[in-house]
Every structure is written in C-alpha cells, then in structure tokens.
Amino acid sequence: MPISPLVQSLKGKLIVSVQAYPGEPLRHPETMAQMSRACELGGAAAIRCQGLSDIAAIKGRVEIPVIGLWKEGHEGVYITPTLRHAMACVNAGADVVALDATDRPRPDGRTFEETVEAIRAQSDVLIMADCMTIEDIRRAVACGCDLVSTTLSHNKAAIDTTLEDGPDVPLLKQATSEFPDYPIICEGHVHTPADAKTAIDAGAWAVVVGTGITHPTSLTSWFKAAIE
C-alpha cells in the first residue's frame, strides 16, 4: 500500500494526544487549542484530539496534522463509532480520522470494514485504526487503513492508568514483525520519555503520548504518590 506523505512525515516522531475528560477544568476547545499549539512548539509532529469543537479549534491553531475522533458513550465501540461520527470529524477539519477497529457491534449496524469503505467513498481523509488485538491490526491492514495503532490494547481508559503501566510492547513487536513496512503506531500508556524510546526501538512508526504530557491531574497525582 502506498504510504501518504502525511504518514511519511510522522515516521520516528511524536504525536501528542490533547484531550480533557468531561467535567475537568481544562475541558474547553480554546484551552485544548492552546495546549496543542504549545505541544507543536515543543516538537510534536501531529495532534490527536476528540470532539468536533476541539478538532475545529485545534485545526485553526496549529500547522501540523490533526488526527480527529469523536467519542460517544463509554462502553463497547465509542471511538468514532459510526460513519456519521467519522464524516463529522472530516467536516470539522480532521486530516486523519481515528476509529475503533475491533469487530464489536457498532450503533449503526455497519462492520468496521463497511465503515472504512463508506468513509473512502465519501472522502479522501486518512484513516487511523485504533486496535485492541493482533486480529484487529490484521483486519485494519487488510482494509488498507493508513495508520494502525495499539490504542485499545490495555482495554481501559488512560485516566485509569498509573505511571508504572507501560506501553503494550509485546503487541507492538508482534505487529511490526508481521507488517514490517506498515505504519504501526504505539499508543496507550506511554508515560515517560523512556517508554517512548522503548516503543520506537520496538519498531513503532510513531508514538502517541497523551496523559504523560497533557493531563496535569494525572501528572500531579503521580508526583504526589511518589512523595507520600
């Protein structure tokens, strides 16, 4: 599969996930846009963000690519769960749309494969597949997704992790071994620079860091726990 120039530009680079959970003090599109710009100045090669307002605000503030998604719900498929959600992210300005790549039921009844096909028919946006297992990764590669990530491999939200929870290196190594020339992204529980380096050394095309950079509540709790 030809690799797009945008995806080529991410090779060996850092992608920062800029998200705040509902009810948190930073949960505002302008705040997310400011944080994204700060990450860009620090060297981020792309921003991953959630929600239509955040996608639009961040796209207007940064010059690097924006990976957009829309979370709805908390169980099952909730990361860009339907074609409608995906196309809304496209219309909000996302350069890449991320969606759940598992084979779990989706609210609109489409399969993952059918969703990817429908997105391709309606847009030239790039597609990032958020995977839980090696089977998901194989499915995403077979569909020709532009990027494939280990986002869901821990099967729990980033906010529920601790500093000791590291990236899923075994899955990453298995995926990069099976698909050595494919853009396999390491995402999930990458909390430290050492974690990020480990992921790159394991063959990751790029590394996504969220909580470890952009979630001050978690960062503060880690320092507090270490002191006390």
From TrEMBL:
Q: Name one GO molecular function term.
A: N-acylglucosamine-6-phosphate 2-epimerase activity
Q: Any keyword Iron?
A: no
Query: Which reactions is this enzyme annotated as catalysing?
Result: an N-acyl-D-glucosamine 6-phosphate = an N-acyl-D-mannosamine 6-phosphate
Kindly report, in one word, the top-level EC class recorded for this enzyme: isomerase
EC number(s) reported in the record: 5.1.3.9
Going by the UniProt record, its keywords in alphabetical order are:
Carbohydrate metabolism, Isomerase
The keyword Transport appears for this protein: no
Q: In which pathway is this protein known to take part?
A: Amino-sugar metabolism; N-acetylneuraminate degradation; D-fructose 6-phosphate from N-acetylneuraminate: step 3/5
* Signal peptide stretch: none
Query: What SUPFAM superfamilies does its record include?
Result: Ribulose-phoshate binding barrel
One Pfam family hit: NanE
Q: Report the sequence similarity comment from the record.
A: Belongs to the NanE family.
Query: PANTHER family under this entry?
Result: N-ACETYLMANNOSAMINE-6-PHOSPHATE 2-EPIMERASE-RELATED
Q: What does this protein do?
A: Converts N-acetylmannosamine-6-phosphate (ManNAc-6-P) to N-acetylglucosamine-6-phosphate (GlcNAc-6-P).
Q: What is this protein called?
A: N-acylglucosamine-6-phosphate 2-epimerase
- What is the scientific name of the source organism? Thermophilibacter provencensis
